Amino acid sequence: MHRIAVLAIFSLLLSGCERGNPLTVVKAVAAGVPSLAPFFEENSGLGRDTTTVRSQPVQASLQQGDTPGLYGGSKQPTVCDVAKLKRFLTDPRNHKKAQAWAGVLNIGTDEIPEYLNRLTPVLLRHDTLVKNHDYKKEKAVPYNSLLQAGISILGDEQGLPAVKCSCGNPLRPFEGDTGRISVQFEDGNKKWAGYERKSVLAVKPAPRKLARIALVDVQEPARGLDRPVGSTGEKDTTFDTKKRRTVPDLAGTTFARASRELIDAGLAPGYAGQGVPSDGARVTATDPPAGAELSFGQYVMVSVAGGGSSTSGGETGPTTTPPPPSSGLRTPPTSTPPKSGSPGSSGGRRGKSSSPPPSSSSGRPGGSSSPPSSSTAPGSPSPGKSSGPPSPPPSTGAPATGAPVTNSVPPPPPPPATTSAPATSAPATREPPSREPPSSAPVTTRPATSPPATSEPATTEPVTGEPVTEGPSTTVAA
Q1: Do 320 and 333 contact (CB within 8 A), yes or no?
Q2: d(CA 164, CA 162)
Q3: How distant, in Å, are the alpha carbons of 27, 159, 165 from that of 171?
Q4: 393: closest CA among 439, 298, 338, 329?
Q5: What is the three-class DSSP state of 292?
């Protein structure tokens, strides 16, 4: 009976957790299987899926739209016929569909041709979560779906899936928790070979508009296709995906900066767990380490300090500050960002040798090969402080040898405390001013009127709260 009661309580606790964070129901959409309520008939020739593509393993459930190796390509021009889709959507007979279609993508019907000109046909290389849309009763009806690898889509300028090619259905980013989904295989969409729950991912927009998208040829994986955004394959150039790419030194940078450098090097950033590290989380290590050589699109696992995570990629304060010094004398503030670096600074690092792969856009933001001038800021005095060395704090355990020294002399033994000073020094503290003692005697009253340097904690200046061991890396901004 006791065991049954414990199980019952455990079940109630689990059900309570489920109610607070329920699973998101997701409909599986297999490659080559017609949609039940498409915007346009599957046999209209808008596009064709590839059923021979197997989903690639992933090491991060949320990836940017410019992640190397995220999408595949093919030399076949029938993957997605953008011109035909444009004719359908601008045909007056399809005006109702065009209105619903444009509404999903937050554009007007008159903007459809220009919008389509900026889309790029690609093939999914991963089982990908999206917000899909059916067309029912002249309206776009949204639902969460899992698109099988091999499905042809049109990607937008930030690498987001925008249109399912075979039926013209508009797509939007998946908004649920990628770690809490319930995939339903029904309506002819049977569980496909190679499906693994841990290989499912969602796509978030790249932080910048792309000029080109680097694809992996699904027929010949050793060949890469560098496709200009807005083109359909006729302007592709090829590159070798097996060419080795060097893992950059990322220790001390922010997670956002590390992701940017890896992507520019032709590598995919990975992380443990479902939660994405916050953009400001500090990188402590990578696996493989800096200097390792990998092929195009391979994952580099990034470890960060602080353990903070954010599915939206927003920066959180506690994760941007490295651990305090081991001495325990100061606790760096976490509510104020360091003054030694602006949010737009590049935070250039020494020793960067990686060059942008074909997937890079018009240029890396803020790249700099020299360390920032403020790299020595941690531990240095702030503006307005005296340049002279601060006097040590009073110590009740040090023996007194006479009157204390002035602040302009390098610190000798600490000044005496009145509670532990020997009797020999007591008369010196009671001498009347008329005795004209040496110049150091009047200083006995100065500690009470001029605060020592230690009375202003270094923690009020954010630049002195960073550990000295971090060096230039603490000034890097995403």
Answers
A1: no
A2: 7
A3: 14, 12, 10
A4: 329
A5: coil
pTM of the model: 0.63
Strands 181-184 and 24-29: parallel
Straight-line distance from the first to the last Cα atom of the chain, in angstroms, rounded to the nearest whole number: 57
Question: What confidence tens digit (pLDDT) does each residue in 55-103 have?
Answer: 999 988 999 999 999 999 987 766 899 999 999 999 999 999 999 999 9
Q: Indicate the SS3 state at residue 204.
A: strand
Any alpha helices (H) in 175-286, and if so which ranges? 255-264
Angle between helices 82-90 and 95-104 (to 10 degrees): 120
User: Degrees (nearest 5) of the Cα angle 95, 100, 101?
Assistant: 90
CA distances from 373 to 338, 474, 477 (A): 14, 13, 14
| Nearest-angstrom CA–CA distance, 94 and 110 | 13
The full DSSP string for 406-472 is PTTS---SPPPPTTT--GGGHHHHH--GGG---TTGGGGGGGGTS--GGGS-GGGSGGGSS-GGGGG
Q: Which residues, at least 6 apart from 26, have a Cβ–Cβ distance to it below 8 Å? A: 129, 144, 145, 146, 176, 181, 182, 183, 184
Q: Is the per-residue pLDDT at 261 higher than 90?
A: yes
From the list 299, 222, 220, the residue with the least C-alpha distance to 52 is 220
Exposure of 12 by Cβ count < 10 A (0-12 exposed, 13-18 middle, 19+ buried)? exposed
144 touches 24 (CB < 8 A): yes
Residues 82/116, Cβ–Cβ less than 8 Å: yes
